[in-house]
Design brief:
Layout (H helix, E strand, L loop, with lengths): L13 H11 L11 H5 L10 H9 L3 H5 L3 H4 L5 H5 L6 H14 L8 H16 L4 H12 L6 H9 L13 H20 L1
Helix pairs in contact: 1-7, 8-9, 8-11
Bound molecules: iron/sulfur cluster (SF4) (2 copies).
The site of one iron/sulfur cluster has 14 residues, from helix 2 and helix 3.
């Protein structure tokens, strides 16, 4: 399959670039655009900018382009790109940082489906320690009030056992919740400074 992606303009805001580098702990300047990340990304077909292009957007400080890109929400944080990058550019951490910035700066609207999905996904992990797909699905349906669009797919997944009726059992749910509490605290401290 051939990738269809936007070209990257070369203008921008250097403060944005520094902020992403610092918050993600990733030196994106090391990226020399070899494309390995984009060729290995399993969801590249659904992205508007490919992973190496998002890195370039950040390098050249194109904040609006980066924060409004569909790619930052399509990325599944699978780490395939980070594992293969010859320069140790941690793209999943860059994507996390961009998502957090987009939410903080209200670049995406509060009630938008992708934001609902993002929050519900994280709430579920906080509650169960890992993802509980059936609960995720039902909560998203309730919150978006879109009850029928994927009904057939949902029923098929249920029949094939891909949606488990019972929630997952994880020994150390308390440990996962403690991680979330630490993140909440550091975000609150960040907002105060
Ligand atoms: S694999 Fe690494 S160096 Fe190559 S384009 Fe992607 S981020 Fe840049
Ligand atoms: S972490 Fe995101 S960008 Fe990297 S390969 Fe996985 S889905 Fe693609």
């Amino acid at each position: 399959m051939q990738y269809v992606a936007k070209s990257v303009p070369a203008i921008g805001d250097t403060d944005f670039s520094s902020e992403v580098k610092e918050a993600s702990g990733t030196n994106i300047d090391r990226c020399y655009q070899c494309l390995t990340c984009s060729l290995d990304c399993p969801v590249a077909f659904a992205m508007d900018y490919l992973p190496h292009q998002v890195v370039r957007l950040v390098q050249v400080g194109l904040k609006q382009e980066a924060l409004t890109s569909a790619t930052i929400w399509v990325c599944a944080n699978c780490e395939a790109c980070a594992t293969r990058c010859p320069n140790d550019v941690a793209i999943p951490r860059v994507m996390d940082t961009l998502r957090a910035m987009a939410l903080r700066e209200r670049v995406v609207e509060k009630g938008k489906d992708i934001v609902v999905f993002h929050h519900t996904f994280l709430e579920n992990i906080r509650r169960w320690g890992r993802q509980y797909e059936l609960s995720l699905l039902l909560q998203i349906k309730l919150r978006t009030r879109d009850f029928f669009s994927d009904l057939r797919l949902g029923l098929r997944m249920l029949r094939q056992g891909k949606l488990k009726l019972r929630p997952p059992r994880l020994k150390d749910v308390a440990g996962v919740r403690a991680i979330f509490r630490r993140i909440d605290q550091s975000l609150a401290e960040g907002e105060r400074t």
